[in-house]
Amino acid sequence: MTNLQTFLSESVLYQKQIIFENYSADNNDYSTPDRFNEKTFEYYCCHEDKNTTFKLDVGEVGRYSYSRIPEEYFNGEHLDFTFNAIGKCQSCNKFSVYFLLNVTSDKPISDIISMHEVNLFTDRSNIDVDGANIIIQKAGVFPEVSVKINKQVLKFFSREMSTFYYKGVKCINDNYGVGALAYFRRIIENELLKIIEEIRDLPDSDKTMIQKLLDEHSANPSVSTIYTHIIEYMPNSLKILGHNPIKLLYNQTSEGLHSYTENESKERAQEIRMLLEFVIIRINEEKSIVKDIKEIIKNLKS
Ligand SMILES: [Zn+2]
Question: What is the CATH number of the domain that holds 159?
Fold first, then answer.
């Protein structure tokens, strides 16, 4: 996949991505909107409910051919333009995604498109274009990227926490890292003890010892040893990470929220989301194995 394909398929709103490195006048991909015309990428087709190949259509701007990059695509000497592009599903031809794309260069670039024409134009032709990167971001997407949520996880939480979980995932999609982290931390603060109780009730857990930890904790909630010690008493399927997932989750609530940048917050939120889903899916698996075996035993007896 090219950088542009990865960008179109995966990047969330306002997430900047380099699509072209070391720009030069003779090697000038993406310097005008028409250069995005007919680029293909993978995307989710709502009509077919699966990923298909999409093709970009940038409309009228795609019909011009330039000898120089027009002034309107510059902000000072930096490339900076925003344009609409429609991605059409090539499989069903019924579904389209609408992007508003913003393209910039991180250094000044020349407006000369071909070095053969350098002699024809004097201004800008002297600008050293070495090393400029072309950067793109989505300034708008319609329809909105749907928030895909694991149903098992949603069911596991209380109504209020399900809403937080949904909002947290949506913040990740919209690239609001700090917001996402805040939601996921609230979920851990509210649900971690419930998760421990669920683990206690699994057949391969040491019920007595986990209950003891829970009793100690309710007698003195400020002591956090429960999160460290639970690993000794839980089923192997929850230990396969080589780390204690409960302690990892707990640790996320103990550090200051404001010590992270937007990006660090987003990464943390994504890690918490994955860990939470891992734990909840494992708990459900352990439960369903027992249910299946109970069924078998019932059938054998009858
Ligand atoms: Zn389609």
Answer: 1.20.120.330
User: 167 CA to middle of ligand 1, Å?
Assistant: 28
pTM of the entire predicted model: 0.63
Which residue, of 91, 109, 142, is where some domain finishes? 142
What pLDDT is stored for residue 198 in this prediction? 95
Alpha carbons 42 and 267: distance in angstroms, whole number: 24
Question: Is 109 in the same domain as 195?
Answer: no
159 in the same domain as 30: no
What is the residue range of 201's domain? 151-301
Distance 95 CA to ligand 1 centre (A): 5
pLDDT of residue 2: 84
Q: Which residues lie closer than 8 Å to 179 by C-beta, 6 or more apart?
A: 167, 168, 171
- Residue 224 contacts residue 185 (beta carbons within 8 Å): no
pLDDT tens digits, residue range 194-237?
A: 999 999 999 889 999 999 999 999 999 888 899 999 999 999 88
State in Å: Cα 217 to ligand 1 middle.
Answer: 53
Q: Do residue 232 and residue 192 come from a single domain?
A: yes
Question: In angstroms, what is the span from residue 100 Cα to ligand 1's centroid?
Answer: 20
Residues pairing with 44 in the sheet: 51
Same domain, 213 and 156: yes
- Tell me how many domains the chain contains: 2
Query: What are the C-alpha distances in Å from 139 to residues 32, 94, 100, 227?
Result: 17, 24, 5, 42
Span 33-68, pLDDT tens digits:
988 999 999 998 888 888 999 999 998 765 556 678
**How many Å lie between the centroid of ligand 1 and the Cα of residue 41?**
13
pLDDT, greater one: 291 or 93: 93
Give the Å distance between the CA of 142 and the centre of ligand 1: 15
